Amino acid sequence: MSIVLGAFYFIYLKLAHNNQLSFSSFIAFLNKNALFSLKSIVFLLILTCFNWFFEILKWQNLISTLKTISFNQALKQTLGSLTASIITPNRIGEYGAKAMYFTPNLRKRVMLVNLIGNLQQMSITSIFGVIGLFFFINKYQLETHYFRLLIILVVGLIATGLFIFGLEKYNIKGFSIQKLKTFVQHFPKHQLFIGFTLSLARYLIFSFQFYYLFQIFHIELNYFNSMLGITSMYLLTSIIPSIFILDVVVKGSVAVYLFAFLGVNQLVILSIITIMWIFNFVLPSLIGSYFVLQFKIPKTET
């Protein structure tokens, strides 16, 4: 119950006390422009459902290497762990939350499987992001901003390097790079391929959802230019540590900076970021809260 109350409280804080865009201003802006029709809302919901449908399928596929679970179980574990991880930095609480759905003898390996799934999504984000950022910098002549972008990338790489070094040197809580390498090497290649495919499908869906919101707000950007900004934004925000509930703030700041070069109004960008956050995280978290309340620790198997 405390996890659900905490999740609701943080969502409320984010919506009611957003320094970048107050919720009242956000609602007034949408009402004034009458941008959303029932058709648009339904289509956005469909995209959100497919986004999480593929994430649930990915988890069901990856965890099948340890234990076969139904789609319904994968749904409960995915959305329940999302709710439980809201107040943790970079959703790290998701690892422990998913592990709790399994017996103690499986939990460490469950956390490694979850890590593989997240690394697959991060790999897709990085590949598209690096390509998009390269073309973005060259197209919009960001020579004077190279240093700022370089600092962000270097800080991200240093933080990653220190984390890897810590795992390698100190073998934190039984985890090490060597154990992870061994685990991945013995992981079924078929499941890895399916995982990457589903990660790609998710990326294409939520990036298109962002582009579709541009169309709703009557932003005159073609698909290519829009994707340059979208892929660059997701890359930069993925390497900036943040508490999940502040993810919308981080994305908003980066998006405002990037899309200013494309001539997109700041209020429009912040509104789109807020809508993406509500559809893709708040709504699934509210559904996940039901599964958290229904959670029971599994009995140890003999």
List the helices and strands and how they pair.
Layout: H1 2-16, H2 23-33, H3 38-63, H4 71-84, H5 93-99, H6 107-139, H7 146-170, H8 177-185, H9 189-216, H10 223-238, H11 247-259, H12 266-293
Low-confidence stretches: none
Tell me, briefly, the overall form. globular
Tally of DSSP β-strands:
0
Question: With helices defined by DSSP (H or I, 4 residues minimum), what is the helix count?
Answer: 12
List keywords for this structure.
302 residues; mainly alpha; 75% helix
Explain this structure.
There is one protein chain. The chain has helices spanning 2-16, 23-33, 38-63, 71-84, 93-99, 107-139, 146-170, 177-185, 189-216, 223-238, 247-259, 266-293. The protein has 302 residues and is mostly helical. It has one domain. Helix 3 (38-63) packs across helix 4 and helix 10 packs across helix 11. The protein is globular. The two termini are 30 Å apart. This is Lysylphosphatidylglycerol synthase domain-containing protein. It is a multi-pass membrane protein. Keywords: Cell membrane, Membrane, Transmembrane, Transmembrane helix. It holds the Pfam family LPG_synthase_TM.
Summarize the structure.
By secondary structure, the chain is mainly alpha-helical. 75% of the residues lie in helices and 0% in strands. The model has no long low-confidence stretch (mean pLDDT 79).
